[in-house]
Amino acid sequence: MVAHDDEYGYWMRQHPSALASFEEIMELSKGKQIALFLDYDGTLSPIVQDPDRAFMSDSMRAAVKDVARFFPTAIVSGRCRDKVYNFVKLGELFYAGSHGMDIKGPNKVSKHTKAQARPVLFQPASEFLPMIHEVYNKLVEKTKSTPGARVENNKFCLSVHFRCVDERRWSPLADQVKTVLKEYPKLHLTQGRKVLEIRPSIKWNKGKALEFLLESLGFADCNDVFPIYIGDDRTDEDAFKVLRERGQGLGILVSKSPKETRASYSLQEPTEVMNFLHCLVNLKRGSIKGRSKA
Predict the structure, then answer these.
(1) What is the pLDDT of residue 115?
(2) Listing from the earlier edge strand, what are the strands of the sheet with 158-161?
(3) What is the sign, positive or negative, of the torsion defined by CA atoms of 28, 30, 34, 40?
(4) Residue 220 above 90 pLDDT?
(5) Helix, strand, coil shares of the chain as percentages rounded to 5?
């Protein structure tokens, strides 16, 4: 227990709480336009057994809606874009589904973006759609023998969930998936939080999506933008990496346990994410009120 506490304490010193460090983060962003990029599962909604029931709370939806009034905001998820939109139900956001392979902007340009920002629809993996559909059908058939396994079609990628699978069957299930993928060298397999992800082998991920969204928002090659990316999974590391390499903005990992990460700060759970969003909104409202009195 002591060893674990020491490990967690060391990790927290390297990745301090974004709530406890809020003033420090605001000092880093001083004079710059904050842009928010949010993962969905495990960040805005809790991780649940049934992925179709990963609903966000009404209070979280209100927090995201409030923050989008003051800052350009995007949801970046491995889920199908339409499914994420149906969970969030906020038309003023950018949505990047399928790990950023399906990006759509709001119908009207936010007042917080640069003049050249524009509505977007970007799908760099469209040619893979027939292949993804074919593999989906094969995986559904192949995994029928594994109780609890669930194959989710995220349009441009697939997710094989094994959260409800007996741990002794995890390895055989992975072997079943790999057997199917042997026939499809243009697809590659990665693993997330109790999920196997199948994606087209193109140079595109959440980090590339982040860069594309910044460009779409009119912030390409700008020094006066401060991107904040909040996520909880391995796939979010590509976005954290981009921010570190740009030397601009920061990543916040949502996790209750120490993990290797390129994020600079941490939050423990979606409730803390919501509180962080509240802090951003309250600070912005306070600054607007202060200017109106001046």
Answers:
(1) 43
(2) 150-153, 158-161, 195-200, 187-192
(3) positive
(4) no
(5) 45, 20, 35
> Residue 4 above 90 pLDDT?
no
Q: What string of DSSP letters covers 10-27? A: HHHHHS-BTTTTHHHHHH
Average pLDDT of span 122-150: 95
Contacts of 68 (CB under 8 A, 6+ apart): 36, 90, 92, 93, 110
Tokens of 210: 């982040």
Strands 33-38 and 225-231: parallel
Catalytic residue (choose from 5, 39, 52, 58) = 39
Label residue 139 by pLDDT band (50, 70, 90).
very high
pTM: 0.88
- Rounded distance between C-alpha atoms, residue 8 and residue 54, angstroms: 28
Residue corresponding to tokens 């209070």: 59
Task: Sheet containing 94-97: give its strands across.
Answer: 121-122, 102-104, 94-97, 73-76, 33-38, 225-231, 250-254, 265-267
Residue 158 pairs with which residues in a beta bridge?
153, 198
Contact at 8 Å (CB) between 268 and 233?
no
Contact 259, 253 (CB under 8 A): yes
Share of the chain above pLDDT 70, in %: 91
39 is an active site residue: yes
Note whether 36 and 90 are within 8 A (CB).
no
